[in-house]
Amino acid sequence: MGCSKTLVAGLLAMLFLAPTILATDPDPLQDFCVADLDGKAISVNGHTCKPMSEAGDDFLFSSKLAKAGNTSTPNGSAVTELDVAEWPGTNTLGVSMNRVDFAPGGTNPPHIHPRATEIGIVMKGELLVGILSSLDSGNKLYSRVVRAGETFLIPRGLMHFQFNVGKTEASMVVSFNSQNPGIVFVPLTLFGSNPPIPTPVLTKALRVEAGVVELLKSKFAAGF
């Protein structure tokens, strides 16, 4: 009986603590831990730290997002990432940012950030922002045209997209509560994985003919 009570108590503790444990990146135990991106040591979360004597004095600053990206892409958009790989100073701090630029009619295709909640502000133009809830919440599409100066919020792990509905270029800046939020582009994942998802799986799942699947695979054979 005592063992059962202990087990139940342990399970309840895990249940209540799990949201806190999994909500964001682990808390840092020092002021700075500038990522040693070339380090060989194995690390579970984040990168090993450079000695502060080698880190320089500019690891808290970056000008990378000041320049617009080249939107001459198949999607008509350009993502400038500022995660730990691009800004080593964010290592262990649980934050990162992106800038996304859009040509007229450009899109940031449906995608998911598996490790972070996202909050963004439209800097220029007007973007249709769409967020899709999980099946538990009715598989509902929440969408709105967001204009310059307005903000939006995307819960962790939910599929979402942005589309430039204006006649001029648009841009947005987003931030994440993870130094490495990750990204899963839905079209690329389904039709451009390596090795490919078997065509019979996709024909069944998407309820289309094999020729349609093969056509879509050919569109993403070279990636994004």
Automatic annotation (TrEMBL):
SUPFAM superfamilies documented for this protein: RmlC-like cupins
Pfam families per UniProt: Cupin_1
GO molecular function, one term: oxalate oxidase activity
Entry keywords, A to Z: Apoplast, Cell wall, Cytoplasm, Disulfide bond, Manganese, Metal-binding, Oxidoreductase, Secreted, Signal
Domain called Cupin type-1: residue spans: 63-214
The UniProt record lists the keyword Plastid: no
Chain positions recorded as oxalate binding sites: N98, N108, H113, E118
InterPro entries, sorted: Cupin_1, Germin, Germin_Mn-BS, RmlC-like_jellyroll, RmlC_Cupin_sf
Binding site for Mn(2+): H111, H113, E118, H160
Top-level taxon of the source organism: Eukaryota
Any one of the GO CC terms: cytoplasm
Location in or out of the cell: Cytoplasm; Secreted, Cell wall; Secreted, Extracellular space, Apoplast
PROSITE patterns membership: GERMIN
Catalytic activity as recorded in UniProt: oxalate + O2 + 2 H(+) = H2O2 + 2 CO2
Signal peptide: 1-23
Keyword Zinc: no
Family stated for the protein in its record: Belongs to the germin family.
Protein role: Produces developmental and stress-related release of hydrogen peroxide in the apoplast. May play an important role in several aspects of plant growth and defense mechanisms.
Protein name: Germin-like protein
Organism of origin: Aegilops tauschii subsp. strangulata (Goatgrass)
